[in-house]
Amino acid sequence: MAEVKAITRKEEEVRQLIKAEIPWEPVGPTPMPEIPDLRSWDMRLLKTYKPWYAPFCDLCCLCTYGKCDLTENRRGACGLDIATQQARIILLACLMGCSAHAGHAGHILEFLIERHGPDKKIDMGTFIELEAPNIRTVTGLKPETLGDLKAVIEYVYKEITHLLDSTHMGQEGSYLDYESKALHASMLDHVGMEVADIAQIVGFNYPTSVAETPMIEMGWGAVDKSKPVILLVGHNPATSCTLIDYLRDNDLYDKVEVCGICCTALETTRYSDRAKIVGPLSRQLFFVRTGIADVILTDEQCIRTDIPIEASKAGSALIATLDKAMYGLEDATDWDTEEIVKQMVEDKKHFAILDPEKAAEVAAKVAIKIAPQKRKEWITEEEATELAKKCTNCDMCERVCPNLFSIGDGITEVAKGNFDLIKEQFNLCIGCGKCEEECPKQVPIFKIMQVAASKETWKIRAGRGPIMDTEIRNVGAPLTLGTIPGVIAFVGCSNYPDIEDVADMVDEFARRKYIIVLSGCAAMVAGMKKDADGKTVYEKYSPDFDAGGVVNVGSCVANSHISGAGIKIANIFASLPLRANYEVIADYILNRVGACGVAWGAMSQKAASIGTGCNRLGIPVILGPHSSKYRRLYLSRKEEDDWRVMDARKREIVDTGEPSPEHLAYVCETKEKAMVTIPKLCIRKNDTPQGRSIKLNHYISLYKKYMGGGLPEDLHLFVRRSADIPLVYKKEVMAHLKEIDWQPKEPVGLPTLIGTYPTKVPIDAVIH
Amino acid sequence: MAEVKAITRKEEEVRQLIKAEIPWEPVGPTPMPEIPDLRSWDMRLLKTYKPWYAPFCDLCCLCTYGKCDLTENRRGACGLDIATQQARIILLACLMGCSAHAGHAGHILEFLIERHGPDKKIDMGTFIELEAPNIRTVTGLKPETLGDLKAVIEYVYKEITHLLDSTHMGQEGSYLDYESKALHASMLDHVGMEVADIAQIVGFNYPTSVAETPMIEMGWGAVDKSKPVILLVGHNPATSCTLIDYLRDNDLYDKVEVCGICCTALETTRYSDRAKIVGPLSRQLFFVRTGIADVILTDEQCIRTDIPIEASKAGSALIATLDKAMYGLEDATDWDTEEIVKQMVEDKKHFAILDPEKAAEVAAKVAIKIAPQKRKEWITEEEATELAKKCTNCDMCERVCPNLFSIGDGITEVAKGNFDLIKEQFNLCIGCGKCEEECPKQVPIFKIMQVAASKETWKIRAGRGPIMDTEIRNVGAPLTLGTIPGVIAFVGCSNYPDIEDVADMVDEFARRKYIIVLSGCAAMVAGMKKDADGKTVYEKYSPDFDAGGVVNVGSCVANSHISGAGIKIANIFASLPLRANYEVIADYILNRVGACGVAWGAMSQKAASIGTGCNRLGIPVILGPHSSKYRRLYLSRKEEDDWRVMDARKREIVDTGEPSPEHLAYVCETKEKAMVTIPKLCIRKNDTPQGRSIKLNHYISLYKKYMGGGLPEDLHLFVRRSADIPLVYKKEVMAHLKEIDWQPKEPVGLPTLIGTYPTKVPIDAVIH
Amino acid sequence: MSALIPFHRVNVLTGIKSARLIEDASEYADLIQKAKRPLLVLGPRLLEWALDGKLLIEYALEIAKAANIPICATAHVKGKLTELGVKPDSVYDAVEIVNALKDPDWKGVKRAGNHDLVIFFGIRSDLGEQSLSVLKHFAPHLKTMTLCKFYYPHANYSLPNFRKDEQWKAFLENLIDNLKKGE
Amino acid sequence: MSALIPFHRVNVLTGIKSARLIEDASEYADLIQKAKRPLLVLGPRLLEWALDGKLLIEYALEIAKAANIPICATAHVKGKLTELGVKPDSVYDAVEIVNALKDPDWKGVKRAGNHDLVIFFGIRSDLGEQSLSVLKHFAPHLKTMTLCKFYYPHANYSLPNFRKDEQWKAFLENLIDNLKKGE
Ligand code: SF4
Ligand code: SF4
Ligand code: SF4
Ligand code: SF4
Ligand code: SF4
Ligand code: SF4
Ligand code: SF4
Ligand code: SF4
After folding, report:
1. Less Cβ around it within 10 Å: N or C end of chain B?
2. Is the pTM of this model over 0.95?
């Protein structure tokens, strides 16, 4: 029996922080939730979607009691078992990811408050009233100014500290609780990302409330190397946008080429459509080694740690602009500008300059001075063939390749004058440089790759930030009914099995009228393939958040707009209050919004936290094959698990037997398998018969296309009544169902997990 | 040339946070410092005390590009090299440590503000005006209320996030910068600890401004098992102090025995001198397995992760009282008390109860109900001998023992009726349980150990919190002159080579009139040995912070009072302003305060951050042999390194050739070696001839005692003029110096590193 | 391996338990034939790799046939099998089949009880190794074996890193012969 | 060891580079005699361990003498040496000597140049293994060897885990004989 308690000082303080008195919605049960507050939701998720652990190592090496051997049910010297250790590492990874975005958010917010003051209004444009779905849902605050965002990010800082605390040797002893904490950290990641992107949109005046953002030139060939070239690497636009301003103000923008790799590129092109995108992280080392950049500006995250060495080798000047990554460089922030320029040009020194204005000015001046001294020639096929002849096809490069292929085979072909294989392989290459490092013959593999790497240029639509409320209103009904078969989000890093996979998947599903959203490196590579007409998916499909639309939301931090779109559907379309009402919203999305994330090239800790944050919100995520190295998935077993839900209308628990969505975090080995898994993970218990038959139509037709015919083995689990069966396959499906003695079931009126586990949320709360 | 800058919004905000307008001291150069602000100090330290890396593994496994082989100068797929990866892990460890204390501080502060309100005044008693030396020095704020502490801990949260950010794959590429960040994290750890302990002293009304705190009974034999027994495990006194209140208020304190392990024990005995201390972390599993505890209350940090399993096996009830460690238990915080009690007693269920009052009440009620059902018998020698006969002396227990000894040999002797060896071995045992887990014969090693473990009880002086200002005033001069030869702090975890080592070292140096301070597990074990008269060091020596005094400051978070004492000397004795003046204070301590930390049993991540925090403040730390598993030390090379300092009076750089202090983080393999290293690390360039001769006297005499005669090899480096030579050894030393052609040198008037590296601090700042 | 584990386990380099390396096809055949309920898990690399023009999937099917081992087709392997006129006994992804195998009470693809020997063939080596890790740590009730030309530390039995494809080919042919003989 | 490294290095279980296990005393003797500037680092366990009543420190001194190897006494070993009438060539702690050895330009204990072979004997095995790790990673200019009865993965050359003290004793005596012969 629950006891009635007086409001505590702490609750009072939270109410103040979130301005509880402003009555835009009633304050829900979990304002600024702490570790225990959403734990029962997590435990419910983890009951169906059990953690699947693939230890990367037999040991724990995290304290001086160790190393501890954790094989064969052994426990560490602190009592820990192998599953708990995996979960602890996952929590650490999610915290590293979450703190990367929170650190970014905190920094950019500080920078923009410096510029605009804390009272700068948050205005996301005409069509976006629900400006901050994650922040509102998680914290209960409706942020109105940059200053409000600060209260939010401080809440994130605090939770990060408490969560990190729990990874200390000898505390948490349950993998389930570590998973709950990882889910908490990752939910906070979406909050941090949202803070960052809202601040950037407001502070840099990025376009917002518009779908048709400019087309940006992309590809290393798009960089005009006849001009001085400044390369931006990383995630934080403070310096890059300041640089654009500097060039504009000093009439230099015609004379200097600005290009970027990773998310800073995406950010910068939201600020200036004349900046170029070189490509994703996997092109970083390749491009740096070409020496085309005269000056490299690094900020934070996804920067190679050897960039000072590589820059020096390539004759490029380097400026580290953020304290996160200073590379041991001298901090020249307080130096005289001309003195820095002089030492950079004459002594070829690299510096850290933490003042964006100074960094921008120095970068421009140095680039203009250095450029004329640099020769920027691409290798010819003849030269490449000559260089390739050193290769003995010894296998060493294959043995160290994280993508497990033999660039040595490609090099061997080049030596014969055949460039076909290496061109294919360039698409597999994640650009890590291990092969060249290991090569006993010092074959200059990256240089040779220049002939393989297409100098072609592509178009990508500039990131546009949040989905508009108006769009949500349009698609809400078809999506929850299932007649738009799903929203598919392609996100994350560039550790691809094949870089072209993403474009292929986007094309397949956009054609089938799914809604496609993209961010980060995935948004880039989706544009790096052309169809027969020479068009990329950005040119081929509409930019609207609607059936068959292809929407680039922006950089990594714009991932918050993808989770945000799910929340908006629950709020705007289904009229569920979201304020501090996370559990209800997540339950709605899990059971009723056919959305699926695809992090095909997931590599970093941020990818771990972004994905895990989607999971807590009820959005399943598909990962590429290497992602089993994250050590943990969330899998159900469709035939063994409990698929009962509450029918909120009838108030009774119904055994649906329907594994929808089947998994929360899943690895597919091949693109083909992903093509079949994506439509399945878009199925929801809420689908109308019409919606379900559309979804099953895609599932079956994709299955036939990629799995060689027949019907999916688990099809019967998703057919409730014959009305669910797509017309074209009616006969085949009916015959199959009869064979296996399938029995029809009643669809659930209003499916929810609320009521199936101990929670303070009443069933009424899910009814809109 | 530095440019003059207008004050920024950010600076303005910091000035507000630290109440810059209150003019208790001028605001120094680094209020609430961020990552870059003390970096040049770090780089200066790291120039002399270079990181020494002992990789624990050849690989990095932190992202899905890996695992990466980092041997033989290979770089990871992100560009990382092995040194940088070690430094990154060290930063992670320091952050885990720092966040554990900051999390503790944040929680206890919230709890106490709930109880007393944010305006509760900070009053540390009559003799302590400088209430928060770390906070004042680092942040520039003089905290006056509990509410002020909140601003401090929020600053720590923010910095933790930014630091953790930098561990994300592919950012920081310099081990030096990672070390600088680890030093930053660890400085913040001392701030967090200080927040926690000040809050506790104020909020629980712990004794303060008094040296002669009560003597506490210690040892597992001290626990009266005829009563219901409640065992407290962990670090956070919220529930334990509430429990004491509950027992007192309900007239139960006579009827229920309260005892603790780890720091919660130390905390609780500051609140009630009737509580018992069972022992350090290394006795946790042993004591739990005896089944003497009827109820176990866990809070946070240093709790075995298998405690729910072990508690069940021993028939003890378990309540997890903090969200950091919930063990997958059902959260009964909102349940009816009687219902919880019922399920715990009847169904033997464990619960999480996050409300301290409820947890306390439930614990008392359950203990009283359970106790009569439990048999609490200790094993007899005969039974032990019988059980030991199963042992085949197969070696497996030795192979898994983290302390590398063969408990199997001890067991074999027991089987013969001989208990001598196992008694010795009990002192080596860190209580991890690996041996018993691995034993193929299922020998109940811990049960057998009951006959080895002395049921003797010892006395320990209750922790007293900060050193008094008055004491500092008394010892300031003799300490900085060197006539009190040093302050030695024994701190940290219980991963001892031999548990008696600490008592031996304390005794040796207290007798020699060093000042001894202790905290945490080290404070406990110092009291776990008696001299011929049956006295522990707490009974033998004065409790004053003065020559020959032995001072227990308290639990782990009281370590901040040890660093704080160093700061107080600089401020109170040397009149250096401390407000936001970290660099000057650290420089003072490094060059002029003969202090040395000894973390002989260092094990956890907190030990890493506490030690590293001392290092940034200029205090060297000696670690036990297993501590090379932390992967990093800070070592100089006395003959090769640069020992130049600025003579601030003469304003010239002087080459002293004197390696004082020689190392910042050092591992000694044996107690004997530590006995010789401690006095050496107390030598400072500032010593007067008289002080130096006293220090050298101890160095030589300890060398002769523990190194078998002769003179230290490096003695000549520490003799500046003949006046430095201790009288008793004059002849021998002079002969030796002559032989090696030693030349006298002028002592430095006012040694400082300021002026030897780029810093904004002017030399004037170090002159008081 | 065990010779290379230091006496004091805390000093282990990394990894305690690693696969027995087997180069002799008859030993493999014995192990397979001793198993009561083996399972052959086929990965998509079998559709790409060939030895002298013969796709690896064909070797896999011959092995399955020779020893009457049920098949699990992962990823999009089923398509090719259909083409070859083979109906796999089960279709699961690598992570799914491993997830099922973890459960000692699982009925197995033949509904005759969980398998006691699981043979991996043709899975991307990183995913394969991670999948084997799951079973090594969480499925003490079964043994694992690999047929790819790489050493897999997390398996119970693994082939060596064959330097030459001929060695691999010889091994596979030998294995098939041995299994046929054993019938 | 190298047979046990998987083809794709990302799948490595154990570390990549681990000690060559040597059981033959003459091989050890050869390696020592081939070294130009060997160094013998003695740890405090030599003062505790005995084989048939003879302290290990005595074996150590015999080895040093037989091959004319300079000695570094760590921890409090010097005391015992003094007692035995031996003046060590240098006195450094394990971490200090390793710190010096890392530096290729260090002059060595004989001031004749850095050592090319460093033999560890009698250091606590965890500290020993960590010290060897430092040298393995940061001192490519020298080789390391151990004489304790444990396998040390981070060394270049190591003894196996001797099951019986007699084996160890035989090895050490053999080694001394071989070294003497080699003179
Ligand atoms: S967990 Fe990673 S770093 Fe630790 S031993 Fe294993 S592979 Fe090495
Ligand atoms: S944290 Fe636990 S499992 Fe890990 S090394 Fe330390 S004692 Fe072993
Ligand atoms: S490592 Fe070098 S030589 Fe060997 S196959 Fe690769 S490119 Fe050719
Ligand atoms: S750079 Fe490309 S080819 Fe070379 S190892 Fe890395 S992924 Fe493989
Ligand atoms: S998508 Fe991944 S790799 Fe690309 S920039 Fe973002 S975090 Fe980095
Ligand atoms: S963080 Fe770098 S070194 Fe570590 S696994 Fe990833 S790519 Fe390799
Ligand atoms: S493992 Fe067991 S049987 Fe073997 S020596 Fe140790 S106590 Fe005896
Ligand atoms: S419990 Fe004691 S004897 Fe047993 S393995 Fe641990 S430290 Fe060694």
Report:
1. N
2. yes
